[in-house]
Amino acid sequence: MSDDTFYPPTHPPDRIDMDLKRCFPPVINEHTCLLVLGSLPGEASLAQQQYYAHPQNRLWELLGAVIKVDLRAQGYEQRLASLLAHGIGLWDVIAEAERKGSLDAAIRNHSHNALTELIATAPALRAVAFNGGTAARIGRKQLQGVGGLQLFDLPSSSPAYTLAFAQKLDAWHAISAAL
């Protein structure tokens, strides 16, 4: 007599419904002088396979104000091309992690991206800007001992960080010095 009973796999309670999330490839070229690093793409970004796809994320407005280009009016590929044309690259400090939802506080068991290796391939790079506290905490740790870069800790462009847009913009204008 065979046992056809299905026994679902057991998982620790904190791993139920946790998905493994992976970052996107870096957006960078030989002319990139400023690299903006986030933590890990959120659900909306992962679903659309685009950096900063959540409609309430303010990254495109913040960077657009810095470079004086209406990035929101552009399609995604044109936004990336505009950033690269102004010497700005994008990536994340986390390569992959378990996370339920989009909040950085829910990130578990993460692995880092190879930031120092990427930086070594970017001859024009002068500065790194961390988009939010999680990116700054993890990124600064990874970049310890890397000299010659100006580092900016910026308020998160995420709608979860409720600082007024004008205050975020004031802080983000500091990166103009690196362009």
From TrEMBL:
Residue intervals of the Uracil-DNA glycosylase-like domain: 25-176
Organism: Silvimonas terrae
Database matches in InterPro entries: Hypoxan-DNA_Glyclase, Uracil-DNA_glycosylase-like, Uracil-DNA_glycosylase-like_sf
Gene3D superfamilies the UniProt entry points to: Uracil-DNA glycosylase-like domain (3.40.470.10)
Xref: SUPFAM superfamilies: Uracil-DNA glycosylase-like
Protein name as annotated: Hypoxanthine-DNA glycosylase
Pfam families linked to this entry: UDG
Superkingdom per UniProt: Bacteria
